[in-house]
Amino acid sequence: MALYAIGDLHLSLGSDKPMDIFGGGWSNYVEKIKDGFSGLCAEDVCVLCGDTSWGISFEESLDDFKFIDELPGKKIILKGNHDYWWTTVKKMKDFFAEHGFESIDILNNNCFFYENAAICGTRGWILESEADALHHKKITARETGRLRASLQAAGDAEEKLCFFHYPPRIMDVACEEIIAVMEEFGVKKCWYGHLHSFGHRLAVRGEVGGIHYEMVSADYIDFTPRRIM
Predict the structure, then answer these.
(1) What are all long-range contacts of 91-97, with beta carbons under 8 Å and residues at least 24 apart?
(2) Which of 60, 81, 89, 223 is deepest in the core (most CB within 10 A)?
């Protein structure tokens, strides 16, 4: 049994927004994802760090989740900024149950346990441009609240692992409020996605201020889940 993470699958099997049009590493990306997961087994766990499906509804996302459910391992999904299908936890769980998707679960104001570690997280947030400044305080307050709820659910877990869609920091920019919550709960490692193409150069990898950061955007890790434990 092993723990993995990957973000930004950007599946579009039931909608018309395939990432292949961007060429480069995204060419034939659905097959790359399938191949990348082939090394996992049924007992493994993989955290999907947001932007999982381009569908704007459950109906549009159905084929994407069927594809995900058929991949080996248990999948824990958190929200990304392009997950327009995302709704309430109850509705999502009901949707998964209705279609027999037994390998998929949701990370939202909760946590999961893997051996002695707690899997915690939320979508996250970082101010990437001045255009986002108007909503910065509101979004930051919401996301720090969700992160705090997730970490509190972890209780006295020996290790608390954090997963985000947005990077908590990029180059010289950081969401200090998110980082402060991680520090408060003694988080030492986190993983994130969101960044693509030229955005990869903004990624922070390695330890900063006592927290180790790793980026797991699918196109950055060759569409192969990154092993964590």
Answers:
(1) 91/58, 95/58, 96/65
(2) 223
In angstroms, the CA 36 to CA 46 distance is 12
Q: How high is the pLDDT of residue 198?
A: 84
pTM above 0.85, yes or no: yes
Domain limits for position 24 = 3-227
* Structural domains in the chain (count): 1
pLDDT, tens digit, 9 for 90 and up, residues 89-123: 999 999 999 999 999 999 999 999 999 999 999 99
Torsional sign, CA 109, 113, 118, 123 = negative
Three-class SS of residue 150? helix
CATH number, domain with residue 104: 3.60.21.10
Asked if 104 and 68 touch (Cβ cutoff 8 Å), the reply is yes
Question: Distance between CA atoms of 226 and 229, rounded to whole angstroms?
Answer: 9
Identify whether the C-beta of residue 127 lies closer than 8 Å to the C-beta of residue 42. Answer: no
CA gap 82, 191 in Å, rounded: 18
How many CB atoms neighbour CB 44 within 10 A? 19
